[in-house]
Structures are given as C-alpha cells and as structure tokens.
Amino acid sequence: MLLKSVFLITLFFFFFLFPLSTSSATSPPATVCIVGSGIAGSSLAHFLRRYSLPSSSRIIMFDRNPVVGGRMATVTIAGHTFEAGASILHPKNYHAANFTEMYKLGRKKPVRSESSISLAIWDGQRFVFKTMSVESKSPLVQKIVSLANSVYMLFHYGFSLLKMDNFVEDMLSKFLKYYESFETRPIFETVDEMLKWAGLYNLTTRTLEEELFEVGLSPLLVKELVTVITRINYGQNVDINGLAGAVSLAGSGGGLWAVEGGNWRMAAGLINSSDVELHLLEEITSISYLGKYYELSSTHGKTYTCEVSVIATPLDEVNIQFAPRISIPKRNLQHTHATFVRGLLNPVYFGMKAVSEIPELVGTIEDVDIPFSSISVLKQHNETDMTYKIFSRKVMDDALLDDIFSARTDTIRINWAAYPHYNAPEVFAPFILDSWHLYYVNAFENAASTMETSAVAAENVARLILSRLFGDGPRSSPNCSSDEEILHSDL
Ligand SMILES: Cc1cc2nc3c(=O)[nH]c(=O)nc-3n(C[C@H](O)[C@H](O)[C@H](O)COP(=O)(O)OP(=O)(O)OC[C@H]3O[C@@H](n4cnc5c(N)ncnc54)[C@H](O)[C@@H]3O)c2cc1C
User: Fold this and answer.
1) Which residue among 35, 37, 71 is best mutated to probe the pocket of ligand 1, counting the most ligand atoms within 8 A of its Cβ?
2) Which atom of ligand 1 is nearest to the CA of 70?
3) CA 234, 238, 241, 244 torsion: positive or negative?
4) Does the beta carbon of 120 sit less than 6 angstroms from any atom of ligand 1?
5) Rounded distance, CA 142 to CA 367, Å?
C-alpha cells in the first residue's frame, strides 16, 4: 500500500514536472493567443506547456476583467468573502483536484455540501418538503440528524432516489474516460465526436425529464427535488439536456469541495506557472486571419500577431469581429442573478413564526410566480444577522427583497451570463472555427458547463493544437503508465 502510494506520488511529480513528449521540442516556436483567463484559458495554457509546446513559444492571454478566473469569482459583502459564481467541485473533478494539489491550495467544504444542512422545497405557498435541522454543533448529533433526514427523504421519494443515483453514477463512469491515457484516448476535432466516444452523446439528444422517466423516476421526485437541483445549478427546468442534467444532479451529492480562498486561485496558479504573458483589462475586439498568422486587435488600440488563436469564453454575448467571418450555431445564455444579502429573512413571507424554522437552503419548484430559484445561508454571524445568497432568473428589486427580508444591511447584485440555455437535442459549435488555427474551447459548454468540463475540453484542445501544428501531437511517456492512474490516486 505504502509502496503503491510512493510510486503514485513519484509518477505524479514526474508527470507535472516534466513534459510528456519531446517530439515537438525541436519544432519551430509558435505564438498562441488565448482570449479568456477563466479555467478554460488557464488550463489550456497549462496543458500546452505540459504537452511540450516548444519552450520558446509565447502564450499571450487576454482578459477584459481586472482579475483572472472569469466565472470563478468571489464577492465581498460586509467584510466577508464568498464564491459569487462557480462554487462547488465534485470529488471526481480530477483536473481541479490536481491543480489544487499542484499549487498547494487548501480545500474547504462548501456550506451546501454539509450533510447536516437543512433543505426545504417552496411551492410559492408552503414548504412541500422540509428536512429536520438542529442547532447543535456536535458531530454525533449532526450525523443522527443527517441519517434521519436520509430516511425521511427515502420515505417521501421512495426508491426513485436510488434510480437517480444510478443514473448519475452511469454518467460519471463514462465521463471518467476523459482521464484515460493518450494510448486509448483519441484527440477530438468536434464535441460530437468527443461525447460519442465516451458514450455521453445520446444524453444530449433528449431532455433530463425524458431520461429520468425512462429510468423509472417518479413524477414527484422529478417535479420536486430534481427540479430544485437544476434550478439551483443551471437556473433552468428539467427540459435541459440529459447530460447537463446528470452533471447538475452530480453536483448535489456528497464529498463536494471548493478551493480555500476562492476557486479562481486555480486559474492564478495555472497562469503563473505556464509562462504566460497576461494582459488584464484588455478586451479583444477583432481576430483576422492574414495568411499564416492571426492579427488580434484590442480595446487598447494594440495589435498582436499569433499563429494560433483560442477563444476560451462563450462567444454568444461577446463582440469580437472575425475576418473571415465564422459561423456557429445560435445559442442563448441563461442569465442568473446572484443577489447577496446581509440581514435576516422574514419568517412571515414563508408562513413561519420564527426565522429558525426556515431551512438553510430553500429551493423552489417551477412556477412563474415564484420570484427566486433558491435562497441559502452562506454565513450565520449570529441569530439575527446572516449572509444569504439568492439565485433568480430576474433581478431581485428592493421592493421584493423588502418583502422577503425583515432586515437588510448590505445587498450586492450580480447579473451573470451564466451558462448556455440548454436544449435537447443540443447542436454543438466546432472546436476548430476555421480551416487554420482558430479554436473554440467553450463549444463543449453546450454539453454541460462546469469548471471541470472546461478543463477537460481545454486539455483536448491543447492536444488538438499540438497535433495540428506539429503533426505528431503529444504522447505519453513510457515512464508514465496512464493519466487515469495518476488522476485517480488520492492526492
Ligand atoms: C452563478 C454561477 C454558478 C456556477 N456554479 C458552478 C459550480 O458550482 N461548479 C462548477 O463547476 N461550475 C459552476 N458554474 C459554471 C462555471 O463557472 C463555468 O462553467 C466555468 O467557470 C467556465 O469557465 P471558462 O473559463 O470556460 O469561462 P469564463 O470563466 O467565463 O472565462 C472567460 C473569460 O473570458 C473573458 N473575456 C470574454 N470576452 C473577452 C474578450 N473579448 N477579450 C478579453 N477577455 C474576454 C471574460 O472576462 C472571462 O474572464 C457556475 C457559473 C455561474 C455563473
């Protein structure tokens, strides 16, 4: 056991300290320009370096924001900092786990992952489902409450819960194929190909609701718990595609985690260690192919020439002019309004006598008259002073907040162009946007939008770039048995 651990740790360091291939070490350098410093752009830079982009090659990265990380952003309200966008990671998010390990970042448990967290489902009039909660901090008491809540959940939803679990596990086992070694894992030119290879494509052709009814879930479970989860994670109903739905359900399981100090720190670590020339507060306005290279123009009135250009942001709401023009399927983004409130909920709004009767996480079913998707406690400062996060499809105006809250000292509103508005069947943009070297990592977001899926897509695009630039592509070192083995070790 000890020997195995030592072996895996050695492999891990070998894997990250040394490039996997020397095949392109003698190839001519190329400048790669990346638009976006979120997890897609930053992990792309990392994988390009790791897979032997010639060391004299430049990586230039642009972000219109003043900080790196994109949708991995924090918000500070009344002196306390919380995740404002992407907040939770799944235990099987192996790239994120490796990044966190590589940069010696700490892990924390997000509030939502506490097994003892109390949950209620609000239908606009009353709580149709409500778990028990206790004040006690004793781990034993919390365990007992958590167990009692599981039994209650099983009683309310029946064995459909197990079928839901199997549905998620099946998706996860297929997704794990993306960590296999290069020997068994091809380089994908299209998202369709990438999904078909893993056995995940069919899930994107039907809605989550269709998929769940087929595996025998009860209408009650779909209408209540499943809807609550998709509304929290994607601000949408159960008519999202089955893969995004399965990913969303996986994000409600156990063992969830987040990076101490903010998930954006993964992007910071990846960029700092990948020899990237970073241009913050600089928006790219046009990308023109001039034969052999691209010219990128920015809001600073500057131009940059690069052999390879990579779009690492959704193209749906950005204003980049392409010459020649590119054509991708039309896609709408789902806007999620994240409202952070320091204050206290009004129990009367929920038909309760005391705030303590309102669970820490209130989810909602699908009803146009319910003005929010979820309200959760981020921090309890004391019994009458809390910080909450509200997700909604529309802006939460002051009048509405004054109905829902009895006291409110601070309010911060963020309107996120959050993720694709999912459909079934999904139509995917290509990874390669022209016949040359213009790439689009976020084409994969139509399958599902998470930090890990962005990193998985970026890893494939890094291999695609290297194979198309240098012909041979990156290869696993004979000393390195497989990515999967390393990525699956407990890091
Ligand atoms: C509210 C919310 C909650 C979420 N919760 C989770 C969660 O719990 N777990 C999870 O895994 N995922 C979650 N997600 C999804 C997750 O945030 C995204 O899938 C992921 O962060 C996408 O990363 P990215 O690098 O692909 O894009 P982004 O993070 O959006 O990065 C793109 C970057 O490109 C920059 N940019 C855009 N246009 C230009 C331009 N023209 N010039 C220069 N720069 C430009 C942007 O400023 C941005 O920084 C959530 C998202 C939101 C909004």
Assistant:
1) 71
2) 49
3) positive
4) no
5) 33
The 3-state secondary structure of 92-154, one letter per residue? CCHHHHHHHHHCCCCEECCHHHCCCCCEEEECCCCEEEECCCCCCCCHHHHHHHHHHHHHHHH
- Measured from the CB, is residue 444 less than 6 Å from ligand 1? no
> What is the predicted pLDDT for the residue at 115?
57
* CA separation for the pair 32, 58 (Å, rounded): 6
Distances (CA, A) of 96 to 103, 111, 255, 293, 450: 11, 19, 14, 33, 11
- Can you give the pLDDT at residue 210? 98
- The residue among 403 and 113 whose pLDDT is bigger is 403
What does the pLDDT look like over 455-473, one tens digit per residue?
999 999 999 999 999 885 5
Cα separation, 370 vs 402, in Å, equals: 15
- Token pair listed for 221: 């479970």
E strand or H helix at 188, and its extent? none
Distance CA 290, CA 297 (A): 13
Give the CA distances from residue 279 to residues 66, 219, 288, 349, in Å, rounded to whole numbers and listed in that order: 9, 50, 19, 47
Q: Which is nearest to 265 in space by CA: 485, 464, 451, 48?
A: 451
Report the pLDDT averaged over residues 242-249.
98
Residue 378, SS3 per DSSP: strand
Local structure of 230: helix, strand or coil: helix
Q: What is the Å distance from ligand 1's center to 155 Cα?
A: 38
* pLDDT score, position 252: 83
Which atom of ligand 1 is the closest one to the Cα of 336?
1
What count of other Cβ atoms lies within 10 Å of the Cβ of residue 13?
A: 11
pTM confidence score: 0.91
Q: How far is CA 372 from the centre of its chain?
A: 21
**To which residue do tokens 């448990």 refer?**
109
pLDDT (tens digit, 9 = 90+) per residue, 192-228? 999 999 999 999 999 999 999 999 999 999 999 999 9
Q: How large a percentage of the chain has pLDDT more than 90? A: 79
pLDDT band at 122 (very low <50, low <70, confident <90, very high): very high
Burial of 408 (0-12, 13-18, 19+ CB in 10 A): middle
For residue 470 the two structure tokens come to: 């240098």
Q: Which amino acid is at 107?
A: R
Rounded Cα distance between 144 and 125, Å, is 30
User: Ligand 1 centroid vs 67 CA: distance in angstroms?
Assistant: 12
Ligand 1 site, residue 442, Cβ cutoff 6 A: yes
At residue 53 the predicted structure's pLDDT band, cuts being 50, 70 and 90, is confident
- At residue 118, the pLDDT reads 87
Tokens of 327: 């054509």
Give the mean pLDDT of the chain: 89
Whose CA is closest to 448, among 236, 266, 301, 227? Answer: 236
